[in-house]
Design brief:
Layout (H helix, E strand, L loop, with lengths): L2 H15 L1 H10 L16 H15 L3 H19 L1 H5 L4 H6 L1 H12 L7 E7 L3 E7 L5 H14 L4 E7 L6 E8 L1
Antiparallel strand pairs: 1-2, 2-4, 3-4
Helix pairs in contact: 1-2, 1-4, 2-3, 4-8
Length: 179
């Protein structure tokens, strides 16, 4: 997993819960990196799981809810760092439908060894989208949060339902209906 995911996560934890919480979750985890991350480094996904688990335990907030909040933060980072990428699109459905064939291609130019989820489009209209998320990492709530922020970015809203195809969350069907 790319280091930017870790550095931004820890920045969010510090902003929301304080530096002491960052220190606490790092110390409670058994991290090969010892909690020292660079944005361009690559780190084990198990480290993110540990940090997320310990943050959940220390705050009483579910991991899924923490991933939603983190996704909102991460979207803002992406929008600020890569405004041209988002400005390419006029509509949230168009942007979400382009994840696999455009956005992930651009991400791979910056982070060639990034392990990204796949999104298979099953159905698309001007106001709806059905797609399958597949990832060895069950971070579908992170994806949901990014989708929510995409609609917010375009001053729009949607009803987004997720249905686990695989119980472990590694394959999820998203049904999106623009309001």
């Amino acid at each position: 997993m790319k280091g930017i995911v870790f550095t931004e996560f820890l920045d969010l934890v510090e902003a929301k819960f304080g530096l002491e919480m960052v220190d606490k979750i790092i110390n409670e985890s058994d991290l090969e990196s010892n909690g020292a991350y660079t944005a361009v480094g690559t780190y084990s996904f198990s480290e993110m799981l540990q940090l997320l688990q310990h943050l959940s335990e220390n705050t009483g907030i579910s991991k899924d809810d923490l991933l939603l909040v983190y996704a909102e933060h991460f979207f803002a980072v992406l929008a600020e760092s890569y405004p041209g990428l988002i400005e390419t699109y006029k509509d949230p459905i168009e942007m979400l439908a382009s994840i696999e064939n455009h956005i992930h291609i651009e991400v791979r130019k910056i982070y060639p060894d990034a392990e990204l989820p796949t999104f298979e489009i099953l159905e698309r209209t001007d106001n709806s989208l059905i797609m399958i998320y597949k990832s060895s990492r069950a971070m579908h709530y992170f994806g949901l949060g990014l989708m929510n922020k995409t609609f917010e970015h375009f001053n729009s809203s949607a009803t987004i339902n997720l249905e686990k195809i695989k119980e472990d969350g590694t394959e999820v069907k998203f049904t999106i209906q623009k309001n």
